[in-house]
Amino acid sequence: MKSVKLTAVRELQIFDVAPPAPPGENEVLLRVGMVGVCGSDIHYYTMGRIGSQVITFPFTVGHETAGTIAETGPGVNTLHPGQRVAVDPLVSCHTCFQCKAGRYNTCRNQKFLGCPGQMEGALAEYIVLPADCCYPLPDNVSLDAGVLCEPLAIGFYAALQAGGLKPEELIGRSVGILGSGPIGLSVMLACRHFGAGNIYMTDPLDYRCELARNNGAAWTGNPRQQDVIEIISRMEPRLLDVVFECCGEQEALTQALSLVGPGGKIMIVGIPESNTYSFQADTARRNEITLQNVRRQNNCTQLTIDGVASGAVDPLFMATHHFPLNDVQDAFALVEHYQDGVIKAMVNFL
Predict the structure, then answer these.
(1) Is the overall model pTM greater than 0.85, yes or no?
(2) 33, 340, 341, 345 from 321: Cα distances, Å
(3) Read out DSSP for 70-135?
(4) What is the DSSP secondary-structure string of 302-326?
(5) What is the pLDDT of residue 234?
(6) Cα 321 to Cα 331: distance, rounded to the nearest angstrom
(7) How far apart, in whole angstroms, are the C-alpha atoms of residue 117 and residue 56?
(8) Beta strand 199-202 with 84-87: parallel, antiparallel or unpaired?
């Protein structure tokens, strides 16, 4: 079978490799249909690492995927060959104290698709996964939408966390989203779905601001060209109830602290290239600001698929580019350099 591997920084090669072993107990063999190129994949592509997670080359990345069940292992009775599924790329142990508390995203023994030292990624024709990582797609949900349910589920989880896991807590709330890439746009869609009020979004790329504005943001601005703090503060004199940092940039976190009102929340969703963040302790303390990190999409994949299937949420505008497998290097280069209005590049294995 074909498998795409990072062989060095910014070097991808397609290999012919042996197919996986047959699925074991409670596992399935997935025929990969589509893979989205994520910002974290680009970190590995350009730097060979994210923080302490360092690639040993060659390695297969990729975790945003949807495909078709090719074979089921013993004990699998909820899925069948030929069934189309979306994938939650987190494999949790279900036995540690975090899993028992329902915090699978902070499982102490977790493995993650396409994470160095844990699991080879989805950029391959076939992969083996636990059955409980695979979620059936209704007939009206395309593979593109199935792939997008992975970042969208992160948006759902981040929004729910901002509301204390009570969707009704977001109704009418003023929201800032700093970073209008796939994750920021996913957070926007989730906040709209849960009834948030005005949503203010920023991005240094004008085309992303326009896309956010055309799909639900009340206002968008470019922080390289405008004083976004002054403008938003004028429109929202009491400042914002919650601000989502969705780009992994120190500048955005600093702005978030100036945009969130007393008693508000800053949700840190973006993955930074650096190992440290800083913030003005005096401002955070005096205004009793909550800073909360968000990791992945705990228990939100099915909720997201249901939202897409019902028509209440439509993420397909984010699937801006499609590449055949042989052009996978072009897909990664396009995303790295933010070319041609890219939001999400998809690699097609069909």
Answers:
(1) yes
(2) 15, 9, 9, 5
(3) EEE-TT--S--TT-EEEE--EE--S-SHHHHTT-GGG-TT-EEBTBTTTB--S-BSEEEEEGGGEE
(4) HHHHHHHHTTS---GGGEEEEEEGG
(5) 98
(6) 8
(7) 8
(8) unpaired
The token pair that represents 155 in the structure block:
């948006």
Distance CA 140, CA 308 (A): 9
Residues in the chain: 350
Does the pLDDT value for residue 90 go beyond 80? yes
Taking residue 101's Cβ as centre, other Cβ atoms within 10 Å add up to 9
Distance CA 61, CA 114 (A): 4
Tokens linked to 271: 């993955």
pLDDT of residue 165: 83
What's the CA gap between 212 and 153, in Å, rounded? 18
pLDDT at 138: 98
Locus of tokens 């897409």:
308
pLDDT of amino acid 273:
75
Given this model, what pLDDT does residue 139 score?
A: 97
Whether the Cβ atoms of residue 262 and residue 240 lie closer than 8 Å to each other: no
Q: How far apart are alpha carbons 167 and 144 in whole angstroms?
A: 26
- 40 residue type, one letter: S
The two structure tokens encoding residue 164: 């204390």
Enumerate domains of the chain plus CATH numbers.
2-136+315-348 (3.90.180.10), 153-293 (3.40.50.720)
H or E stretch covering 255: helix 250-259
Segment 251-299, tens digit of pLDDT: 999 999 999 999 999 999 998 877 788 988 999 999 999 999 999 999 9
Q: How far apart are CA 270 and CA 267, in angstroms?
A: 9
